[in-house]
Specification:
This protein is 72% helix and 7% strand. It has 9 helices and 3 strands; from the N terminus they run E-H-H-E-E-H-H-H-H-H-H-H. Helix 3 runs antiparallel to helix 5 and helix 5 runs antiparallel to helix 6.
């Protein structure tokens, strides 16, 4: 909801925006929404900007932006912890995990499967940043930038595919990590651009 209010929105607009951002997974009813809006106002996270009959519009305050920044930091730390734990699990249990998908006749593939899992797991933190920052930018109302990050991911995978004849299977293992890193190199600066743009007075 706070993300929606980086731009001035009324209650109906907020409900629709939340539904779009979550692809229909989260639907907020009017009663719940207006209770939250009242709470956010009391906390100083948002302010009422316009009243037209029963239609009230709101926008985030500097304190609300600080709360968003806190959420971003918390998500980043959580992503880092998840990435570290996942890498540890993969390092210790890569072969048993791979055997869930391989039969006894395919054990010769274990070294390659282990290599793939370890390389991917080593880049889970960049992957977490892709998801955190992409959805943040989308929620701020800059969906084209979020989409462009996806295009860059595809471009990175396409580029790495040309390296496979030279570097073999190792290059294929780095296709997704290269995509995540390139997306982050775009998304992180894009986030700060969006934040500055929305912070400008209207």
């Amino acid at each position: 909801i706070l993300l929606c209010l980086t731009r001035e929105q009324c209650g109906v607009d907020i409900m629709e925006r939340v539904r779009e951002m979550t692809e229909g997974r989260v639907v907020i009813g009017p009663g719940t929404l207006y209770s939250l809006l009242e709470s956010f106002q009391q906390e100083g996270f948002i302010r009422e900007t316009k009243v037209e009959g029963r239609r009230r519009s709101y926008r985030i305050t500097p304190r609300g932006r600080e709360r968003l920044d806190q959420g971003l930091r918390s998500c980043t730390v959580l992503g880092a912890v998840y990435a570290a734990v996942s890498l540890g699990i993969v390092f210790l249990f890569a072969d048993p995990l791979n055997m869930l998908f391989l039969d006894a006749e395919s054990t010769s593939l274990l070294p390659l499967a282990r290599q793939y899992l370890l390389i991917s797991a080593a880049f889970y933190f960049p992957l977490s940043l892709v998801n955190i920052v992409r959805f943040l930018i989308q929620g701020m109302g800059f969906s084209p930038l979020a989409t462009l990050a996806g295009v860059l991911e595809m471009a990175a995978r396409g580029f790495v595919s040309y390296l496979v004849p030279v570097f073999g299977f190792a290059a294929a293992c780095y296709a997704s990590p290269a995509a995540w890193v390139l997306a982050d190199l775009f998304l992180v600066p894009a986030y700060f651009y969006c934040r500055r743009k929305l912070a400008r007075p209207e």
